[in-house]
Amino acid sequence: MTAALPRTAREVRLAAIPGGLPTREHFAVVDTPLPEPGTGQVLVRNRHFLVFPGLRTLIGGEVDGLPLPLLRSGDVLFGPAVGEVVAAPSDSPLRTGDTVAHMLGWREYALVAATECTPLDDTLPDPVAYLSPGSAAYGALTRLADVRAGDIVLVTGAAGAVGSLAGQIARLLGAARVIGSTGSREKAERLVSELGYDAIVLRGAGPIAAQLAEAAPEGIDVLVDTVAGEQLAAALGAARQGARFALVGTLSGQMSAQRSGGSAPVEVDAFRLLVKGVSLRGYSGADHPDVEKEWTGRFGGWLRSGAISFPHTRIAGIDRAPQALQDMIEGRHFGAVVVEL
Fold it and tell me: Enoyl reductase (ER) domain spans which residues (predicted)?
């Protein structure tokens, strides 16, 4: 340890299991003694961490099939983070001052196994961009939906962390028309004016299927779905022959107060799937290990050229992190939500 490091640091813990959606009072920001790295470990001062929807599922306890553990009362929250190594044993492959990514966010200082840290370079112009979940959108569009020149693409949840990049990526890959869905008129305006969406389907402004028929009278070729529910059913009704649907999220169920975050039932027309030859596949990054590196390279180039933007909201201070999670669940933010320490 160096003398410059504090004796204690703050972290966010789950104070109580909610009966429905988690809110600010279900979390506590507490002081904890600063640990010292042992063999194979490093101490990282976190600079930024991502607030992500998957926490709702981990808190709700429905983690069957997920690669992450459930969160119990008293547990420290976790998730993608970027920080600086501030202490490391002499035999560590990492050195003080290295910038790394890891999964122990939601705390000011993280004791992390060196093998679970990813050293970061300057491929991306801002280290915060390494917290972007854009690899899911890119992987879905290139590995499952295989977007082609001239395609008409629908992105549900277009103002979210994945959706706000999916539309931009689809356009860069050749899509002729990009349609998004959101639940806010203000977000709808920003999707068109800032991110180049051609049309928006607005949740709560009438039947989704009718709005989609107006926005895409010729139908859609590709769906990047982060919502499921009524929007997935409506997309199937608009599918053209051979349409490719990639499921990246299920926010309609995950953010439902009537569910625990691990289910999102939806009724689909199997006959239309059959006669239209629609492919419907779920995207998992673990199934496509080559995507992350490919995406990071292209993302860096697009960011530097100005071809793409990384929409995100920065929340200052760990004390505001629990409220940031509640606000994200309530759909109050545009793009990814990042806590800045």
Answer: 20-339
Query: pLDDT tens-digit profile of 142-151?
Result: 999 999 999 9
CA distance 220 to 212: 9
The residue segments making up the domain with residue 164 are 134-287
Q: Tell me the per-residue pLDDT of 287-300, one tens digit each, with 9 for 90 and over.
A: 999 999 999 999 99
pTM of the full structure: 0.94
* Alpha-carbon dihedral sign for residues 255, 260, 263, 268: negative
Both 139 and 263 in a single domain? yes
Based on the fold, state whether residues 188 and 120 are members of the same structural domain: no
Q: CA–CA separation, 231 vs 245, rounded Å?
A: 12
- b/e code 202-232 from CB counts within 10 Å (16+ = b): bbeeeebbebbeebbeebbbbbbbbbbbbbb
List C-alpha distances in Å: 64 to 22, 71, 154, 321.
20, 13, 29, 26
